[in-house]
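Checklist before submission:
- one chain only
- standard amino acids only
- sequence pasted in full

Submission:
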Amino acid sequence: MNKLNLPENLVRLRHEKKLTQEELADFMGVTKASVSKWEKGQNTPDLLLLPQLAAFYDVTVDELIGYEAQLSAEQIRYLYAKLSKDFANLPFGEAVEKTKALAHRYYACYPFLLYLGILYWNHYMLAKTPEQGRQLLQEAVCWCERILQNCGDVGVCNDAFTLKAGLNLQLGKAEEVIKDLEPVADPSRLSGQNGGFLVQAYRMAGKKEQAKHYVQVKHYIDLVSLTGDAMQLLSLYEEDEQRCTQTIRRMRGVMELYQLEALHPNLSAQFHYQCAVFYCAKGKVQETYDTLWRFQKCVEQLLQADEIKLHGDAYFDLLDAWIAQLPFGSATPRDRSFIRQNLKDSFAHPVFDSIRNQPEFQKLMRILQFR
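Returned file contents:
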């Protein structure tokens, strides 16, 4: 718990209301001297007066006394997993109300507020109406703005900045995203060299293990980013069949080299799905099926496992320690049943209408238990 700051809050709130000490004293039924002592920290209000003061200033008692509830990384991880299951199993409105109640309770725990924003981003599409979904995304944007205005943790603020951009993009606010990201996303900026400088500093300081840990994690993240970039290329160059074919061939080579289907089946499934959409749109039926079976193999890994977890492997042997430190831990950000629903929705894509009734496509749907 942070240091309480009741005296400072009482002064600030009274000034915001443009009240004198006499006026507050009259309202509270105490003397001006009592109010003065409260604000100087020489005395504290009677316990029974705190709710009355809080109601008068339209704040909670916690906000009045300066209490800021904080959660540990383990608690954040537990609550995120619990809320994620709620979105999968409870009525949408009930899951939202539970999330909002926790947001209000831990409004000053900025890492938790950040992950509630991620929770909304991952589940807003379950809303009964598009407007309901937009409201959730907008509320998550407001949480990000609160973090950026008040949080002193640079890492949390950086994540909130990126999350805000993603949320605004989902809201269709492209120009706002461009305005925010163009100045910082330029690959030629010196900030892109920070990682290399950090590794050199670790080695210079004799901290070789920290250097290994950082490089391995960065290597993994770069691999994930490379796969994401490949999917973006397929979307951006959808009319350029030759380039897309080359992108698929090269990325598959990288995936095979790094055994990405075993390392990160969820990401691999997303890539294969994007490739299948491209091939089907081009009328390449056999290539579509070949890719969908690759997709099915990754999905089976996800749905047959006891738990859906992120993990390293023999090459990325330091990754598990890093994953364990994440607020999510090794758990994926969405519940298994939600992933299955997403898969069902993905195969409803109109691009597959041309093969939907073919025996091989029907067989694939049966294996994935969509029928």
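Reviewer check: The chain is about 70% helix and 0% strand.
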